[in-house]
Structure formats: C-alpha cells, structure tokens
Amino acid sequence: MYIKEVASSLYPWDLADEGVETCVDNVVEHSLVNSVYLVGIMHKEKRPLTSLFYTHNPKRKFYLPEDSRIYYRMDEANFANTPLKPMYSDRDFLKGTDWLDQLTEYGRKKNLKTGAEISHTFFDCEVAKKEFPDVLQKNIHGGIIERHFCCNNDHVKEYMKAIFYDTVKNHDVDFVQTCMMLFAIGEPVKAPWFMENDPENKVGALLGVLKGGCFCSHCREKAIGMGYDWDRIVSDLKGLEQLVYATAYHNLDSVMDNHVLMGSDLLETGLLLEYPSLYQFLEFRMKSIAVLFKEIQVSIKSANPKADFRYNNYLRYPELAGLDFASVKDYLDSVRDSDYTEQLGAPDKFKRKRNTILKIRRGIGYDKDLIAAFAPRPNATPELIRESIKVLSTLGVDGLSLGHYDGATFELLDAVKTGMREAGLEIRK
C-alpha cells in the first residue's frame, strides 16, 4: 500500500537544544519521515508529556513552556481588526529566533514537506482573563471556561484568521495544522455512586456538554441570527442541567429522576427526542464551527492557494465539540487523528483507533488525505508500534504521523521503519 506522508512534529525547544539538523536527520533516518512541522504555537504543558524525563535532549531533563506563545515572526499589520495581538516567548534561548523559518529552510534542503501547527490554545489564557474576558467561552451560568475561546466572538475569529493567514503568507509551509479547542464539551456524566459506571456510556458523554459551552452573548446573537430560539434553548438546558447534576446541587427534588435517567439504558436518540433544545444547541455549535472553518480556509487560500488546511483531531467524540466532519469536509484539505493508545499498551487492541479513523473517513470522504498518528513514547514497545502501523495499513490512511519526537526513544523510532516494511507501506514519490 502506498502512502504520501510520514510526518513528525518538532518543538522550538527541541530545535534549540538538539539543533535543527540533528532533529530532522534523526526522524528522517530512523522513521523515514518526509514531512516535518513546527508546533509554532504551543499550550502550557509539561514536556515530555507522558514520561518524567526527556529521552535524548542533551541540555535539559524536562521543559515547561509558556502559555500559547508564537515562535516565529508575524506581521502585526495583519492583526489590525482585533485587540488580540501576537505574544512571543520571553525565554532567552528561544526569543528573537524565527524557529519556523529555521526548520523549513533545512527541511527544504532535505526535500521534505514542511508545515506549522497551531496547537490547542492560541492566546495566553491568564492574559485573556485579565484583559479580554469577553473572548473566553461561558458556561450555562455565565462563568468563564478556562482555555476555551469563543469562535462566535468576532475578535477571536479575526485573531485566528490572521494567524493562519500570516503563517502561510510569510513562511515556506505546505500545510498549516491545528488542534485548537473548539466548543468545550464538559466532563462525561457518571452513574450515581451505587450504580456500576459504564465508561462507554454515550448518554453520559452527551450530557457532559451541559457543563461545556458556549452560552455567551456572542453565541446568543449568532444563534438568533440563524433562527434559533436561544432563550428557550438555554432555559430548557438549565432545567436539564439541574436534573443531571441534582446530587451536586443538593437538589433533592430531582434526585430520583437523576438516578432513574442515569441507571436506564436510554439511547442518545431518546434523550434528544425528549429534549429537542439539546439537539438544537448541538446543531448550532456544528454550524458555528463550519462557518469558522470556512472563513479560515478562505483566509489561508487568499494568502497561499497551495497551502493545505489540516485539522488535528484529538477528541474521541468531536461532534460533542461542534465538529462534524461531513459539515466541514469542503473546508479542510486533510485531517490528522491523534490517537495515542500505543502509550497505554493498546488495551483495546486498537479498537478506538480503528473506529475513529473510519468515522473521520466517513465524514471527509475518500479524496481528502487522512493522516493517522501513533505514539513512539517510552510506555509503548517496538511490537506495539509495528502492530499499530499494521492495523493502520488496513484502514486506507494516506499518511502516518509521529506523536511526538521529543519523548520518543530511538528504539521506537526505528520500529516505525520496520513496521512500515512489515505492513507493506511505501511512500509514494
């Protein structure tokens, strides 16, 4: 089977600590990588994520990034229509260097595909809370939802479009990828303490959106403009939220209704039939994300018609965040799926990976590229990496993606090359 791409992400601190040439040469040599991309805007998160210490960084044992800094140059003029402005690193070993240009220049020398990723969050959340609280999503009671920016806020939308536009306009990239957080999905609702909890309870996952967002004034304005009775939707969902979280609110009048609901085998269909406002809320968010993706794509193509817009899916149920792949397929060029069950020992024997890949394929069709990720991290094994690649070879994917180099061991990176050979995968020239 032929694939087009084997991709590897690289972080700016990787490049600074190990050297651009070393990082790129390592992934090319050990894993047959033909596509490298910089995580150019990174959320606040310990690196490496799934192990205590780095496996091959010569300068530090771990790293704590700043929140949502941009690690390459931006043209401030592109941000004239929004009060949100690019924020750059204050760390001495990172600031003042365009790490995207550093990576792409060497990548081109190696005849590699190049890209940039805009990660989960694209603006410092603490700064936003203090200076621009209006841009953050609001829960059903009006409280701020951390790290989630409302895509129905015009200032947020303009900032996002400017980042994508500038990235492809002023840098030599073939694609711009993002795993930006969409609408907050809350937490799955569990069964009462005296009942056995089913982790596969999809009704519980659906009900979690009641603790998600967004219920801000911008969403209200956009929803009414689309013809929704927003005030009725919010009123109905507040009543359902009080029932679902009756115990937490010490709402004894609804406790029995809560226990019966969560102890039943009600399907999501039954819940949506009973609460049409819940369906309308989900539909409105789906339409909002489709509008956002369309506008981002227009912005990207206006800057560089050849640059691909790629979404990096990280959610088990992206539809609960407003992402329906069938609704956005015309606005995406490719999709990467971030299933990393290898690092957990693949206890489900890659069932989730298969299901997610097929769900995305069903949505985007057969002509859009689907890139499947796997985790060459210390909790995985060479056998698991090879088995994962073998499974992916049966699912019609168009490429593979390492997640991520900074925590990988060379033994696991070598397993990529071996796994591709055993699975009969060959990169199309």
TrEMBL record:
Question: Which domain of life does this protein belong to?
Answer: Bacteria
Query: What is the name of the protein in this document?
Result: Uncharacterized protein
